[in-house]
Amino acid sequence: MLSRKNMIEYLKLLGAELKRRDKEGEILLTGGAAMCLVHSAREMTKDIDALYEPAEDINQIAARIAEEYDLPADWLNDSVKGFVTAGAPTEEFMALDGLRVTAVTPEYLLAMKLMASRYGEKDSEDIIFLMKKLDIRAADQAADIVIKFYPPNRIPPKTMYVIEECLAEALAQKQSGGPTMKML
């Protein structure tokens, strides 16, 4: 698992090596890394799901960092590219020597998490967090966010179930001031 502190350290190493190579890199954070680093929604994540350029250089440097720090080979990966649509809205996160780090917006991150629809995993906690952050009070508000970024014919049927379950929990937490049920 990667902590916020570790992720920042590895991103700094990545940027420093890019700068040494006389290159500028860009990383767009999504998933658990965005939840952890940008939104402080949790302490750790298993990897950094991101889109990045220059991909070949960053993959080489990430492999060396993985070897040097005994990290999984996919600690930094672009497997999320199938969920990120062209023109995804982003926000600045941090600028490091040799590396600019951005993240998808909270709305877009919620849409991505709902498209994955993995209720019961970390995603449900993330969805609940984002629903509260975005002050979503009705299922159609969440559904409208998904439709804003993804064509309706691509939205899995179970997404509405996840919206309803997570929204019920988000509203209960808002009312009580904290978590009300244990996520499976």
In short:
Helix content is 50%, strand content 16%.
Summarize the main sheet: 5 strands, mixed
Mean pLDDT: 92
Unreliable sequence segments: none
Query: What is the strand tally?
Result: 7
Radius of gyration: 17 Å
Describe the structure.
The protein is an alpha/beta fold. The protein folds into 2 domains: 2-104; 107-176, no CATH class. It is 50% helix and 16% strand. The chain contains 7 helices and 7 strands. It has helices spanning 4-20, 31-38, 55-68, 106-116, 122-133, 139-149, 158-176, and strands at residues 2-3, 25-29, 44-45, 48-53, 76-77, 90-96, 99-104. A 5-stranded mixed sheet has the order 5-4-2-7-6. Strands 1-3 form a two-stranded antiparallel ribbon. Strand 6 (90-96) and strand 7 (99-104) form a beta hairpin. Helix 4 (106-116) runs antiparallel to helix 5 and helix 5 packs across helix 7. It is elongated and about 50 Å long. The model has no long low-confidence stretch (mean pLDDT 92).
Q: How does the SSE layout of this entry go?
A:
Blueprint: E1 2-3, H1 4-20, E2 25-29, H2 31-38, E3 44-45, E4 48-53, H3 55-68, E5 76-77, E6 90-96, E7 99-104, H4 106-116, H5 122-133, H6 139-149, H7 158-176
Parallel strand pairs: 2-7, 4-5
Antiparallel strand pairs: 1-3, 2-4, 6-7
